[in-house]
Amino acid sequence: MKVAALQMVSGVERAPNLATARRLLEQARDAGAELAVLPEYFGAMGRQDTDKLPLAESFGDGPTQAFLAEAARTLGLWIVGGTLPLQGSDAQHVHNSSLAFAPSGECVARYDKIHLFHFDNGRERYEEARVVEPGRECVTIDVASRDGERWRVGLSVCYDLRFPELYRAHAQAGADLLLVPSAFTHTTGQAHWELLLRARAIENLAYVLAPAQGGVHENGRHTWGHSMLVDPWGQVLAVRAEGGGLVVGDLSHDRLRQVRQQLPAREHRVL
């Protein structure tokens, strides 16, 4: 199955970001992708954390969800909408949610980001929990490719990448592909992004597809980018450093079987 990670440099206004996302989704379709994944906060990167609040949609209704459903249906793609803000338990909080849409346009899964980013090095400070409410559930979906093969896909978001327990749960559930839509900062991404992605692939013997925000944003934030596809041996199959565009590559069940047979580490787990 051919997959695509869409890299963006989202601005503060939703409409132009959705227009950019649509162009990239069309390019992914034209490249032969069956599954296309958008980055975290693809619809808007606000000037401040509270800018997420007025953009929050109720689950099942809203302009960003309508956009994703229409794109999936019209383009005939499986689409995972990186993340968008969905209403939380009160007016001061949202969920940072990843929604999966089938080619029919139906939303088939929702994953609310569990681990909330906190970073303070004296120059940059981020505290996602100020406006984001954490999720609690591990979510996988089954994607049927056009050739009839089934791919089990584990959902995650950005800062989740630092918590291997989530990905081990996906592996135990039979995941073949791990998705990591992200908006890693330039500082943390330069230090840890590729290392962590390759580690999650290797330890779980699964493909990893990681679409990212990548560049200097309208709000002044600098994201690391380097969207990539990693195979279950930890080999980087494709990467895009900065700027909007696609990372496209093929998944192979034969490759998964080969790696899992020659090093059956998932079967050797004790703790």
From TrEMBL:
This is Carbon-nitrogen hydrolase family protein. GO terms for molecular function: hydrolase activity, acting on carbon-nitrogen (but not peptide) bonds, in linear amides. Belongs to the carbon-nitrogen hydrolase superfamily. NIT1/NIT2 family. It comes from Paenacidovorax monticola. It holds the Pfam family CN_hydrolase. Keywords: Hydrolase. InterPro entries: C-N_Hydrolase, C-N_Hydrolase_sf, Nit1/2_C-N_Hydrolase, UPF0012_CS. Residues 1-253 form the CN hydrolase domain. Coiled coil: none annotated.
